[in-house]
Amino acid sequence: MESIKIVEVGARDGLQNENLILSIEDRVEFLCRLSSAGLRHLEAGSFVSAKAIPAMVDSESVWEAFPQKDSAELSFLVANEKGLERALKAGVKRIALFTATSEAFLQKNIRSSLKDSLKTFEEVSKSAIASGISIRGYVSTVFGCPYEGRQSPGQGIEIAERLFEMGCDEVSIGDTIGVARPKEVRDFFKLLESALGLSRVAAHLHDTRGMAMANMMAALESGVRIFDSSVGGLGGCPYAQGASGNVATEEVVYCLEAEGVSTGVSLPKLFEAASWIQAKLGKPLSSKLFLAGLPKKL
Questions:
Q1: Following CA atoms 238, 20, 7, 79 in sequence, which dihedral angle do they give, to the nearest 10 degrees?
Q2: 255 is an active site residue
Q3: What would you report as the CA-atom Rg of the chain, rounded to the nearest whole angstrom?
Q4: What are the residue boundaries of the structural domains of the chain, listed by start?
Q5: Taking the model in full, what pTM does it have?
């Protein structure tokens, strides 16, 4: 049976968009529940300003308190040298760097131009790699920006290439505001495959317009084997008005397993994690599968 890699982003990309700030204990418990469901690659937090992203405050304590470090790989978003200093001091093993195809989006998000952000990341990458830290890269707004509209596919490919050259072992391609459609997804990944190959490329899809699962299948058919997802469909973007949550992890697992693709994830335990975080947040999750439940005859 063919297998894929799922990167669970609910504990970072998901929670950062929530008004309710969970305690360190609850954030760790959430990660433990996700790990126990079989998810081995988890976004866990951000080393960024607590003023900018209050929900990610004191991510060092999340790393320190997480008890399943041997069975799950945690990554933490880093925006600059100061963030890397925090990561090094905390002793984390993996960081993530974030940039975008859109200049306007970057200015809103990290108050930096694309050129300056890549220059900063070159320095961050050198120091991280020298310290034995692995790096994941993110390219946002690849299919569209809330401020600039549609983006050039060539821009996304060029930035992905720069991130690989810096030393990223994986680059995630983001439909940040959920404007992509299956044909556009297939066309983009066909171009990317010709330029860089797809073995180290992930698809990060948002369900703003109900296209995330269709786009996920289009990416799968195109050769992508790494997918970012968020339990319950948690997520959005604080700097992209109208961008709703990520594709739901349980929907990805449910669909892929039916297609004969192994995920290594337990749906019942994933539902338990979704129920737990829904109760903590005090509001319904957006995942249609979670709301409907698994078909009883299946």
A1: 50
A2: no
A3: 18
A4: 2-290
A5: 0.95
Other Cβ atoms within 10 Å of 103 Cβ, number: 17
Question: What does the pLDDT read at residue 106?
Answer: 87
Out of 145, 168, 237, 255, the active site residue is 237
CA distance 231 to 102: 27
- Integer angstrom CA distances of residue 288 from 74, 212, 213, 248, 252: 27, 12, 11, 9, 12
pLDDT at site 298:
52
How much is the pLDDT for 245? Answer: 84
Residue type, 73: E
Q: What is the CATH number of domain 2-290?
A: 3.20.20.70
pLDDT of residue 242: 53
- Give the span between the Cα atoms of 248 and 45, in whole angstroms: 19
What type of residue sits at position 178?
Answer: G
The 8-class DSSP code of residue 179 comes to: -
What Cα–Cα distance (Å) separates residue 80 from each residue in 34, 97, 160, 219? 28, 9, 18, 31
Low-confidence ranges of the chain (pLDDT < 50): none
Instruction: Tell which residue, 20, 89, 86, has the closest CA to residue 48.
Output: 86
47, 86 contact by CB (below 8 A): yes
